Amino acid sequence: MVELLNRAVRAALFFMSALMLAWAFVPEGRTVAAGLALGTAASVANALLLRRRVEMLAKLAENGEARKSGLGLGARIATVLLAGMIAYRYPDVFALPATLATCFFVQIAVFFTAIAQNNHRSDGKG
After folding, report:
1. pLDDT in tens, 5-51
2. Any idea what DSSP says for residue 92?
3. With CB atoms 3.0 to 4.6 Å apart as the test, which of 19, 35, 51, 101 could cross-link to 95 if both were Cys?
């Protein structure tokens, strides 16, 4: 699982690098590129929050302790809301639809990375 997440985060960082190049060389698309970068950054933050939460739950299960309640989902929702509020507040810098469209980039990248890894490991028999 850690390997899948690392690959997805790496893909997100490459995507953000390409967006910064697009922002630099395509002036007409600066708001879209910045919005896509903001949404991808929120997605990476959410992935890292989720990873930390899963590791914490694994340690609790390993020690046999009771599960502590927390704000795991709330923190991830707040991250997406913050990205959306930033894009809404500064429409001349960030495109809101582009920001919201990429808030789930890492999760989708993990899905496709897992499919590719599963197909690579299978022997083609079903």
Report:
1. 888 999 999 999 999 999 999 999 999 999 999 999 999 999 998 88
2. T
3. 35
| DSSP label of 28 | G
Element (H, E) at 26: none
Token pair in block for residue 29: 């698309």
Identity (one letter) of the amino acid at 94?
F
User: What is the CA 54 to chain-centroid distance, rounded?
Assistant: 16
How far is residue 54's CA from residue 38's CA, in Å, rounded to a whole number? 24
Residues shown for the chain = 126
Q: How far apart are CA 10 and CA 42, in angstroms?
A: 14
Q: Could you tell me the pTM of the whole model?
A: 0.85
Q: How far, in Å, CA of 119 to CA of 81, rounded?
A: 35
Could you please report the per-residue DSSP string of 25-89? H-GGGHHHHHHHHHHHHHHHHHHHHHHHHHHHHHHHHHHTPPPPP--HHHHHHHHHHHHHHHHHH
